[in-house]
Amino acid sequence: MEKLRLFLPALQELFLSRKPCSCRSYSMQNPMASLLFILAMLAGPCPAADYPERTERTQSAGNHVWHIDPDKGNDGNPGTTPSTAWKSMAPANRLIMARGDTLVIHPGEHAVSLALMGEGSKQAPVTIRFMPGRHIFKHGALMTGKPQISNTNDAPNEPKAMAVRLMEAKNIRLEGKPGATDILLEGKAIFVCMEHAENVSLNGLGFDYLHPTMGEFLVTEVEGDTMKATIPDGILYTVKDGNLTWHGPGWEFRMGGYSKVFDSASGTFQGRFDPGKTVIRELSPGKISVTFKEGSPTMKPGQSYQNRNTRRDCCGFFQYRSKNILWNNCHIYYMHGMGVVSQFCENIMFSRLNIAPRPRSLRTSSSWADNLHFSGCRGKIIVKDCVLGASHDDAINVHGTHLRIVGRPAPNKITVRFMHPQTFGFDAFAPGDRIDYVSSNTLVPYASNTVSGINQLNEKEIELTLQHPNPGNIQPDDVVENVTWTPSVHISNTVCRHIPTRGFLLTTRKPVLVERCRFEKTGMPAILVEDDASGWYESGVVRNMTISRNTFIQCGEAVIQIVPHAPRPEGEVHRNITITGNTFDLKNGTAIRTRHTGSVKAEKNTFTKDGKKIPEEKAVDIR
User: Fold this and answer.
1) Positive or negative, the Cα torsion across 51, 53, 56, 57?
2) Which of 216, 225, 279, 571 has the fewest CB within 10 Å, making it most exposed?
């Protein structure tokens, strides 16, 4: 109605006088065109106009500076100075950026995504500078797409909102002032999505949700059969008929289901809470009481209840078919879904990335699932000087994907299928990629070939044409792995804490080095090396791994576990693993366990339990 009131004079002038509309911003000589424009404005923002295709954009000449100010700007301005800034990202989205271009974005509420296309140079990149302050990307009008994301695809056909999207962009620098520039999402979205991008860096940026998708409360008092609790700022909820529902823009779920209890005093996950046996009342905004209908309260003051909907419908960041990506001095306070997902990317570095709640916040969770997830990458993965954790799943997971062989339509062809219901739909092969045939029973590769042609049959099945005939010993349920896309990994000087599951999951045949890291009280093994063709179908074999000079404090055991999921093992799946110079403070006594792994060296490690040293033969189980 407000929009109708604003445009009513223009409509009256148009139809009563039969003259061209004189409304300054909408003047047109054609009355019908005026009418159509006004109706379009009444209908709201037009995504096609805000996010034009490359062919509809204007090429920048380079070395320009533009300004966006959502509070004081106007999209009718030239945008070349702070006083003549644009209001939204829409004018910038009509450009193809060039070398030396700079887009200065002032804080405020952004109703339009930044959909960047363009190419800088290494000496003069395109710079996107988010000025200090709060940059709030509003729910409902952001750009959407349907990326198919590994380990995340519960909702493959649902549009996923994106705050910043880099499309075929090259030599791009996104920057802010460390500790002062925050990018915040009002609703569920991907912070930054980059596709077919190259030489991209993110520097000095903070990322957070206004309304996290993880429900939380902190127990402050226990008396009799009742707990009193505080819900952290920003977490939205309603209480009705003794039940609590978490909600945010575009989503809601009733308290219950998958949950964890975090004990801040010990830094561990312990205890339990079942809301189905309670009556919940709101005492005042952000304050609730939880009364147990039977039994006694199961949480203590200082413990936090964390609760999420397990539907994997989105991720925090998505990096796809991109290369030379650098994260430097960034902080993630909260992200939804499978964390930072890098899928078929090459050369990725995370330096001084901190994933943790804001200091002095009552929130205890920063990551809905994994922190850093790498699927089918190659080149170098480097993680250094980071703090990872405050998640509901693993800090780092590096893996490929096994696809099952389900058909052989010709001697040099195979049909392969994505098997896990949350991993499918993406381009898993390209011509020239080398594949290994892998026994589903032993997980041992037994032949190789090269892809020469690809026919995507449907979202889960792909027909591969190969340079050579298939081997004659393929067995039912055998799988293939794309071994061209396997990375080397170097993780150093990184802290891993406040995690109920594993620290690092690492399965790649290229060299792996984990050194000088600190693992604090992970709920499961601090370092896990698996490989499977029957569960998550996460590949592959390890051929060169060194774990050196790390500190492991009270982690789940075995602290380092190297156990491939081979149903009928024959021979070595992994080999050439050196575990040296590490310090283990053990809860129970098992520091290292290996199975179906050859050439394992465990030397110069120190093992203690309850402050007393224990001999290596009691702490190490190598078979």
Assistant:
1) positive
2) 571
